[in-house]
Protein backbone atom coordinates (compact mmCIF):
# COMPACT_ATOMS: atom_id res chain seq x y z
CA UNK A 1 0.00 0.00 0.00
CA UNK A 2 2.69 2.47 1.08
CA UNK A 3 6.31 2.12 0.01
CA UNK A 4 9.12 4.42 1.02
CA UNK A 5 12.24 3.89 -0.98
CA UNK A 6 15.55 5.31 0.25
CA UNK A 7 14.41 8.78 1.20
CA UNK A 8 16.78 11.44 2.47
CA UNK A 9 15.32 14.41 4.33
CA UNK A 10 17.17 17.50 5.49
CA UNK A 11 16.27 20.46 7.68
CA UNK A 12 18.18 23.34 6.16
CA UNK A 13 21.49 22.47 4.61
CA UNK A 14 23.14 20.71 7.49
CA UNK A 15 20.65 18.59 9.46
CA UNK A 16 20.33 15.25 7.72
CA UNK A 17 17.25 13.95 9.58
CA UNK A 18 16.41 10.86 7.48
CA UNK A 19 19.13 8.78 5.89
CA UNK A 20 18.19 6.30 3.17
CA UNK A 21 14.95 5.32 4.88
CA UNK A 22 13.03 2.48 3.24
CA UNK A 23 9.91 1.01 4.70
CA UNK A 24 6.66 -0.56 3.70
CA UNK A 25 3.13 -0.69 5.06
CA UNK A 26 0.86 -3.35 3.59
CA UNK A 27 -2.88 -3.04 3.31
CA UNK A 28 -4.57 -4.06 6.56
CA UNK A 29 -1.49 -3.81 8.74
CA UNK A 30 -0.63 -1.91 11.87
CA UNK A 31 3.01 -0.95 11.55
CA UNK A 32 4.84 0.82 14.35
CA UNK A 33 8.01 2.88 14.38
CA UNK A 34 9.88 3.10 17.63
CA UNK A 35 13.06 4.96 18.49
CA UNK A 36 14.59 7.49 20.84
CA UNK A 37 13.81 11.22 20.78
CA UNK A 38 15.08 12.83 17.63
CA UNK A 39 15.49 9.53 15.75
CA UNK A 40 13.35 10.80 12.88
CA UNK A 41 9.96 9.20 13.45
CA UNK A 42 7.93 12.39 13.11
CA UNK A 43 9.96 13.38 10.06
CA UNK A 44 8.94 10.13 8.35
CA UNK A 45 5.24 10.81 8.97
CA UNK A 46 5.64 14.39 7.74
CA UNK A 47 7.34 13.17 4.59
CA UNK A 48 4.46 10.80 3.87
CA UNK A 49 1.80 13.44 4.43
CA UNK A 50 3.56 16.03 2.29
CA UNK A 51 4.68 18.38 5.06
CA UNK A 52 8.34 17.66 4.28
CA UNK A 53 9.83 17.04 0.86
CA UNK A 54 12.61 14.45 0.60
CA UNK A 55 15.75 15.54 -1.18
CA UNK A 56 15.99 12.13 -2.80
CA UNK A 57 14.15 8.83 -2.81
CA UNK A 58 10.50 8.07 -3.50
CA UNK A 59 7.25 7.52 -1.65
CA UNK A 60 4.51 5.58 -3.39
CA UNK A 61 0.95 5.04 -2.19
CA UNK A 62 -1.20 2.47 -3.93
CA UNK A 63 1.37 2.38 -6.74
CA UNK A 64 1.23 6.16 -7.34
CA UNK A 65 4.30 8.29 -6.78
CA UNK A 66 3.31 10.86 -4.14
CA UNK A 67 6.79 12.21 -3.41
CA UNK A 68 6.74 15.98 -3.04
CA UNK A 69 3.07 16.49 -3.85
CA UNK A 70 1.22 19.04 -1.65
CA UNK A 71 -0.26 17.88 1.66
CA UNK A 72 -3.82 18.78 0.60
CA UNK A 73 -3.57 16.41 -2.37
CA UNK A 74 -2.18 13.63 -0.20
CA UNK A 75 -5.21 13.87 2.12
CA UNK A 76 -7.45 13.45 -0.92
CA UNK A 77 -5.69 10.20 -1.74
CA UNK A 78 -6.81 8.75 1.59
CA UNK A 79 -3.89 9.40 3.94
CA UNK A 80 -4.71 11.15 7.19
CA UNK A 81 -2.09 12.37 9.67
CA UNK A 82 -2.84 12.89 13.37
CA UNK A 83 0.13 14.97 14.47
CA UNK A 84 1.87 14.91 17.81
CA UNK A 85 0.23 17.37 20.20
CA UNK A 86 -3.15 16.77 18.53
CA UNK A 87 -3.65 20.22 16.89
CA UNK A 88 -7.36 20.45 17.36
CA UNK A 89 -9.06 23.81 16.94
CA UNK A 90 -9.38 24.87 20.56
CA UNK A 91 -11.98 27.59 20.03
CA UNK A 92 -14.32 25.38 18.06
CA UNK A 93 -16.69 22.82 19.52
CA UNK A 94 -16.15 19.08 19.35
CA UNK A 95 -18.81 18.84 16.66
CA UNK A 96 -17.24 21.59 14.56
CA UNK A 97 -13.84 19.92 14.76
CA UNK A 98 -15.33 16.63 13.59
CA UNK A 99 -17.18 18.34 10.74
CA UNK A 100 -13.92 19.88 9.58
CA UNK A 101 -12.42 16.41 9.26
CA UNK A 102 -14.93 15.69 6.51
CA UNK A 103 -14.95 19.03 4.73
CA UNK A 104 -13.67 17.49 1.49
CA UNK A 105 -16.62 15.13 1.35
CA UNK A 106 -19.76 16.42 -0.38
CA UNK A 107 -21.80 13.29 0.41
CA UNK A 108 -23.65 14.68 3.43
CA UNK A 109 -25.47 11.43 4.22
CA UNK A 110 -22.18 9.52 4.33
CA UNK A 111 -20.63 12.20 6.55
CA UNK A 112 -23.57 11.98 8.94
CA UNK A 113 -23.22 8.21 9.11
CA UNK A 114 -19.51 8.50 9.82
CA UNK A 115 -20.19 11.03 12.56
CA UNK A 116 -22.54 8.50 14.13
CA UNK A 117 -19.84 5.83 13.97
CA UNK A 118 -17.25 8.17 15.52
CA UNK A 119 -19.66 9.02 18.36
CA UNK A 120 -20.31 5.31 18.94
CA UNK A 121 -16.60 4.66 19.17
CA UNK A 122 -15.96 7.72 21.35
CA UNK A 123 -19.07 8.16 23.50
CA UNK A 124 -17.25 10.76 25.53
CA UNK A 125 -17.06 13.02 22.48
CA UNK A 126 -20.80 12.67 22.02
CA UNK A 127 -21.43 13.78 25.61
CA UNK A 128 -19.26 16.82 24.99
CA UNK A 129 -20.19 17.58 21.42
CA UNK A 130 -21.08 21.22 22.09
CA UNK A 131 -18.13 21.86 24.40
CA UNK A 132 -15.29 24.10 23.29
CA UNK A 133 -12.48 21.68 22.34
CA UNK A 134 -9.78 23.60 24.19
CA UNK A 135 -11.46 22.67 27.48
CA UNK A 136 -11.32 18.90 26.84
CA UNK A 137 -8.88 16.82 28.86
CA UNK A 138 -5.70 15.60 27.16
CA UNK A 139 -7.16 12.15 26.55
CA UNK A 140 -10.38 13.58 25.18
CA UNK A 141 -8.40 15.83 22.83
CA UNK A 142 -6.52 12.78 21.58
CA UNK A 143 -9.83 11.03 20.95
CA UNK A 144 -11.08 14.11 19.12
CA UNK A 145 -7.96 14.22 16.94
CA UNK A 146 -8.44 10.56 16.04
CA UNK A 147 -12.17 11.02 15.52
CA UNK A 148 -11.54 13.97 13.24
CA UNK A 149 -9.08 11.92 11.20
CA UNK A 150 -11.65 9.12 10.87
CA UNK A 151 -14.19 11.64 9.57
CA UNK A 152 -11.94 11.96 6.52
CA UNK A 153 -12.41 8.22 5.83
CA UNK A 154 -8.69 7.49 5.56
CA UNK A 155 -7.37 4.30 4.05
CA UNK A 156 -4.04 4.93 5.77
CA UNK A 157 -3.98 6.56 9.20
CA UNK A 158 -0.71 8.08 10.43
CA UNK A 159 -0.61 8.47 14.20
CA UNK A 160 2.17 10.40 15.93
CA UNK A 161 2.52 9.38 19.57
CA UNK A 162 -1.18 8.88 20.29
CA UNK A 163 -0.52 7.91 23.92
CA UNK A 164 1.66 10.87 24.80
CA UNK A 165 0.78 12.48 28.11
CA UNK A 166 -2.11 10.15 28.86
CA UNK A 167 -2.87 8.38 32.13
CA UNK A 168 -2.12 4.62 31.98
CA UNK A 169 -5.77 3.63 31.82
CA UNK A 170 -6.35 5.90 28.84
CA UNK A 171 -3.19 4.66 27.13
CA UNK A 172 -4.70 1.19 27.10
CA UNK A 173 -7.97 2.58 25.80
CA UNK A 174 -6.28 4.46 22.95
CA UNK A 175 -4.38 1.32 21.89
CA UNK A 176 -7.60 -0.72 22.01
CA UNK A 177 -9.25 1.87 19.78
CA UNK A 178 -6.36 1.78 17.30
CA UNK A 179 -6.75 -1.99 17.15
CA UNK A 180 -10.49 -1.68 16.55
CA UNK A 181 -10.03 0.93 13.82
CA UNK A 182 -7.60 -1.45 12.14
CA UNK A 183 -9.91 -4.45 12.55
CA UNK A 184 -12.54 -2.46 10.70
CA UNK A 185 -10.29 -2.01 7.69
CA UNK A 186 -8.07 1.03 8.17
CA UNK A 187 -4.33 0.53 7.71
CA UNK A 188 -2.27 2.22 10.45
CA UNK A 189 1.28 3.53 10.75
CA UNK A 190 1.90 4.58 14.36
CA UNK A 191 4.88 6.27 15.95
CA UNK A 192 5.24 5.57 19.66
CA UNK A 193 7.48 6.11 22.64
CA UNK A 194 5.42 3.49 24.40
CA UNK A 195 7.14 0.60 22.65
CA UNK A 196 5.63 -2.13 24.76
CA UNK A 197 2.03 -1.21 23.96
CA UNK A 198 2.77 -0.37 20.33
CA UNK A 199 4.45 -3.73 19.73
CA UNK A 200 1.55 -5.52 21.40
CA UNK A 201 -0.94 -4.31 18.75
CA UNK A 202 1.35 -4.03 15.70
CA UNK A 203 1.90 -6.63 12.99
CA UNK A 204 5.33 -5.31 12.11
CA UNK A 205 7.79 -2.78 13.47
CA UNK A 206 10.75 -0.63 12.52
CA UNK A 207 13.34 0.66 14.96
CA UNK A 208 14.98 4.00 14.18
CA UNK A 209 18.21 5.46 15.46
CA UNK A 210 19.55 8.85 14.41
CA UNK A 211 17.77 8.92 11.09
CA UNK A 212 18.34 5.30 10.09
CA UNK A 213 16.37 2.09 10.36
CA UNK A 214 18.45 -0.25 12.47
CA UNK A 215 16.01 -3.12 12.83
CA UNK A 216 12.75 -4.30 11.32
CA UNK A 217 10.61 -7.40 11.48
CA UNK A 218 7.39 -8.76 12.85
CA UNK A 219 6.35 -7.13 16.13
CA UNK A 220 7.28 -10.36 17.96
CA UNK A 221 10.73 -10.48 16.38
CA UNK A 222 11.42 -6.85 17.25
CA UNK A 223 10.07 -7.27 20.79
CA UNK A 224 12.38 -10.22 21.40
CA UNK A 225 15.53 -8.42 20.22
CA UNK A 226 17.96 -8.00 23.12
CA UNK A 227 18.86 -4.46 21.99
CA UNK A 228 15.20 -3.44 21.82
CA UNK A 229 14.50 -4.98 25.23
CA UNK A 230 17.37 -3.03 26.76
CA UNK A 231 16.68 0.28 25.06
CA UNK A 232 12.89 0.45 24.83
CA UNK A 233 11.25 -2.24 26.91
CA UNK A 234 12.94 -1.60 30.24
CA UNK A 235 15.29 -4.60 30.04
P1 LIG B 1 10.62 12.61 19.13
O1 LIG B 1 10.37 11.22 19.59
O2 LIG B 1 11.46 13.39 20.10
O3 LIG B 1 9.40 13.34 18.68
P2 LIG B 1 11.41 11.94 16.41
O4 LIG B 1 11.98 10.58 16.29
O5 LIG B 1 10.01 12.13 15.99
O6 LIG B 1 11.63 12.50 17.87
P3 LIG B 1 12.03 14.05 14.52
O7 LIG B 1 11.11 15.04 15.14
O8 LIG B 1 11.66 13.46 13.24
O9 LIG B 1 12.37 12.90 15.56
O10 LIG B 1 13.45 14.76 14.40
C1 LIG B 1 14.56 14.17 13.71
C2 LIG B 1 15.73 15.13 13.75
O11 LIG B 1 15.45 16.29 12.96
C3 LIG B 1 16.07 15.65 15.14
O12 LIG B 1 17.46 15.70 15.25
C4 LIG B 1 15.47 17.04 15.17
O13 LIG B 1 16.20 17.90 16.01
C5 LIG B 1 15.58 17.47 13.73
N1 LIG B 1 14.50 18.41 13.38
C6 LIG B 1 13.17 18.15 13.43
N2 LIG B 1 12.45 19.22 13.04
C7 LIG B 1 13.34 20.18 12.75
C8 LIG B 1 13.24 21.53 12.28
N3 LIG B 1 12.07 22.10 12.04
N4 LIG B 1 14.41 22.22 12.10
C9 LIG B 1 15.59 21.65 12.34
N5 LIG B 1 15.77 20.38 12.76
C10 LIG B 1 14.67 19.66 12.96
From TrEMBL:
Q: Which UniProt keywords apply?
A: Amino-acid transport, ATP-binding, Nucleotide-binding, Transport
Q: Which InterPro entries match?
A: AAA+_ATPase (IPR003593), ABC_branched_ATPase_LivF/BraG (IPR030660), ABC_transporter-like_ATP-bd (IPR003439), ABC_transporter-like_CS (IPR017871), BCAA_Transport_ATP-bd_LivF (IPR052156), P-loop_NTPase (IPR027417)
Task: List where the protein spans the membrane.
Answer: none
Q: Which PROSITE patterns match?
A: ABC_TRANSPORTER_1, ABC_TRANSPORTER_2
Per the UniProt entry, the signal peptide is none
Q: Where is the ABC transporter domain?
A: 2-235
Write one Pfam family the protein is assigned to: ABC_tran
Q: Which CDD domains match?
A: ABC_TM1139_LivF_branched
A GO molecular function assigned to this protein is:
ATP binding
The Swiss-Prot or TrEMBL record describes its family as follows: Belongs to the ABC transporter superfamily.
What is the protein name stated in its UniProt record? Answer: ABC transporter ATP-binding protein
